[in-house]
Amino acid sequence: VDTFFPAIKWWLFTQEVEADKGALWYVPGSALVIDKYLDWVYSQTIQIAEGHEQRKDHIEGSFRASLEDLEAMGYGKPEAMTAAIPGTLIIGNVAGFHRRGDTVEPVVRNALHGSIRLDDPFTF
Questions:
Q1: What torsion, rounded to 10 degrees, do the Cα atoms 64, 117, 77, 44 define?
Q2: Average pLDDT value over all residues in the chain
Q3: What is the pLDDT of residues 49-105, one digit of tens each?
Q4: Which residues of 102-124 are buried (b: 16+ CB within 10 A; e: fewer)?
Q5: In what order do the strands lie in the sheet with 79-81?
Q6: In angstroms, rounded to a whole number, what is the distance separating the alpha carbons of residues 101 and 19?
Q7: What band does 124 get if pLDDT is binned at 50, 70 and 90?
Q8: Cα end-to-end distance, the chain, whole Å
Q9: What is the mean pLDDT of residues 20-36?
Q10: How many CB atoms lie within 10 A of CB 82?
Q11: 44-75: b or e for each residue (b if 16 or more CB lie within 10 Å)?
C-alpha cells in the first residue's frame, strides 16, 4: 500500500503486458478499510518502531503484505492486470495492495504513468 488514504495511479501501456512479464498485480477490495487491516497496520508500525522491520522498502513507507497477511485480513488473492492491446489504460486506488509482477526473463515494461493525490487527505 502506498498510503492510508485514497490515491489514484494510472498506467497507459504502450505495448502488450502479460501476467508473467511485469504486469500490475492488485488485490481487489483491499482499498476498503476494515478492522483487520487497521490491526495489521498498527502491528506493522510497532514492528518498525521496535526495529523489527523485515520487509523490502518497509521503512521507507510502503507496507508490504505477504499472501498469509492478505488471507488473515480477509482479502482475496492478487490478480494480474494485463494489457492485451497497446493503449490499455489501467487506473487503481493505490491505498489498496498492489505491486509490479514478477517476470520469467528481463523485461522492459513501457508505460505512461501518473498519480493523483489529495493535498490534504484529512479534508475531502
A1: 30
A2: 85
A3: 887 766 655 556 678 889 999 999 999 899 999 888 889 999 999 889 998 888 888
A4: eeeeebebebeeeeeeeeeeeee
A5: 79-81, 24-26, 98-100
A6: 7
A7: low
A8: 20
A9: 91
A10: 18
A11: beeebeeeeeeeeeeeeeebebeeebbeebeb
Amino acid letter, 101: G
**pLDDT over 70, % of the chain:** 92
Element (H, E) at 46: helix 35-49
Dig out the grid coordinates for 87 from the structure.
Answer: 493503449
* Single-letter residue type at 55: R
Kindly report the backbone phi and psi dihedral angles of residue 117, in degrees, each rounded to the nearest multiple of 5, phi listed first: -130, 150
Contact 79, 85 (CB under 8 A): no
Which contiguous run of DSSP H or E holds residue 42?
helix 35-49
